[in-house]
Amino acid sequence: MITAVIDAFWRAWSDYGERPFWRMVQLFVDRIFRGGGDADTEGLDLGVGLVLTLLAMPGGFVSLLLLNKYGTFLQWLRGNTNVDPLLVALPDEYFFIVLSMTVTGAVAVWRWDAIFPDRRDYMNLVPLPISTRTIFFANLVAVFFLVGLIAFDVNAVSCILFPAVVGATQSKFLFFAKFAMVHAVGVVLASIFAFFAVFAVLGLLMAVLPPRAFRRFSTYVRGIVVIYLVALLCTTAAVPDALRRGNGTSWTFLMPSCWFLGLCQSWRGRAGPVLVALSRLAIPGVAAVVGVALCAYAVGYQRHFVRIAEIADSTASARAPRTSRLGLLLDRLALRTPFQKGCFRFVCRTLLRSEAHRLVLTAVGGLSLVLASQALMDAFEGAKSWRAAALSPDALSIPFILSFLVIVGLRLVFEIPVELRSNWIFQLMLDQDGEECEPLARKVMLILVLPWLLVVAFPVYAYLEGWVVAGLHTLLVTTWAVLLTNIVLIRFRKLPFTCTLPVFKQHSFVTLLSVGFGFLLYAVSTPEFEPSALAEPLRMISLVPVALVAWYVPHRLAKNTIDIEKKLIFEEPPARAVEALGLGDYGR
Amino acid sequence: MLEAVHLTKSYASLPVLQDLSFSLRPGQVLGCLGPNGSGKSTTVKMLTGLLEPTRGVVQFDGHNIQDDLTAYRKRLGYVPEEAHLYPYLTGWEYLELIGTLRGMPRDDLYKKIDSLLELFSLHPNRHTSIGSYSKGMRQRVLLIAAIMDNPEIFIFDEPLSGLDVTSALIFKNLVQALGQQGKLVFYCSHVLEVVEKVCSDVLILRKGVVIAQDSVANIGQILGQSLENTFLHLVDDVDTMSVARDIVSVMKAA
Q1: Which residues of B are less than 8 Å from A129 in CB distance?
Q2: B105 part of contact set with chain A, CB < 8 Å
Q3: Does the reported pTM lie above 0.90?
Q4: Angle at which helices A90-110 and A256-267 cross, to 10°
């Protein structure tokens, strides 16, 4: 009897799912996860399960790391015996709210092209016996489902672990339950707000701009949103302190993350007047942003989707390509061979025009700008004059931070392939033994990084500190940038963007740690030493051995590389089952 | 009967199609020819209801198709010029999606999908994602999607694009068979010999205006030459031989 009822229920449910409307909802959900854009090839498909796991991981990891802070035994060892966990948890609560907003916002930016139905949907669905209104509602349902799923997924682990960690010192289950409930509402609302805020921006752009202008501006706006999200993540250290001290006044009202923190702390009864005032903005804020997003979506749908047939397929510009003088100058001075001349333009155009590459570079650029601006603010904090601030390690670190992150970011971006089916032209035409990839990649990095540093850093320091200081500082930054490019390009033997994605290797974690360590050496230790060296230029000599080692190691590694490993590749080789030890080399 | 009555379409007051009228009877295969920019795609989009005409109407059985587009599209099979398919779906999943959205009964749908995939030689690849299909395979998927619900009207926009010789031959015979079955077929193509072979009538467009409309046989008889020569005579101001000679001389230039 029960089995029959269950069977009947599943049959009815399955029939319901097969109705055109729900089938279309499934299609849109699938498309948001796996499709989007006008490319006819499959993009980087990580699979829904892996994507959801990756999104859930940050919250889980951070919760576990907090055990150190809230553990009873550790608290006791530190002598903290009378701690109010609800007050102590404020910065962590803020961090989780920001994390939730950043991850959800980043997903919305990442799937920007797939949230709205596009030309492919139009060509496949509109000629079928379905009204455009049905398509509209099916996509809307898919978007709501997606928001719910992401908000749940991003916050699910932290909603259990974080309250469990904070409540470790409490004996009552009710404390855990209350804390978990308030935390869950706060972070889920923050997620919903972030997603719909991005959705509203997208919808407003579609509603206001003509299609061609929308396509052009879309990337820049996405870049701005990414920078905002990175900046938001960087506020996690400063904002809770400011709010706890009661300093948060006008500027915190402009930060939605503070609204949700206020909401959580108010419901827990641990909010000061500022937080109470902030909490009043949270729910109206979410309602307003959802309302704006829906209205903008409806208008954008009417303007863009329903009229796709009337919009030209191509985005061709009427402008003829201009021969740049800079390009001619580079050809004459830096780019010697036809390979370098042709491929340099290919690399630069891909960096400027490919959506995925621009977004990753924007995120790296955003991070470097945020770190650089923090360094600038730190430099001026407590400094008596411009000159004193300019010679502080914080100010001197700015070009190092920018150059390090941009060079490492470019190295990362070079690994992201673009339309691999098109790389046949390079396979056909390039000499596989030419060994020109590394010099080309180095030139791209240095040409994209050094001119800006020289144009800004040299005149500023020449004006503030004189030619000698400006010259030495610029020389040091330039030398370090050149050495860094040599290091990041060790055994680089592919034309950027034309090779398959590298597989995850065991040494990838080591590489990641090396980047962190390298940043400390490059952008923290060097500027710490630099003021004394600028005061007494002879001290600069002590950096020569470091520079020589940094030059010699990549040089030696390149020399020892066997010929077959220098060949240009278009496919990442899988990890080898058997490694040659090269013992014969020692006999030479 | 499908009728285009004084169709005119303008974009920002720039006319791309002017006063196009024709009728398509059951059993008739009407070919549409014209150089690039002649208005073929605009005509197809208006016949499928994707575009609303600026003036004039498209009527099916005496009713304006815009009055009930959903009902009209239920009776329409359309193969677009470009195969914009979902690359992450398999061929089978795509056809199942289209069949479901067309409201086909599930059992009937699954049987038809399997049979048609077999007949179009796609059965071994039915569970492979479309992203890895060749152009010809994608085109075959589109053809199956258009015909599997047995519609009354067929609109084919460059349907042979990318098809191999065998599939193209099958398709040409299929079009003729559809005509014999009493279906209405509107066939848009650049390939003159195919139009000459499979269509009973032909419509030639140039710069948005109909310049010839008659049966294939009549058009050839009137001008006393093949359809290719007739087409060149009617639409092309270009001396193709001279252009070819110019290309070779540019290639040779230092």
Answers
A1: 70-71, 73-74, 101-103
A2: no
A3: no
A4: 140
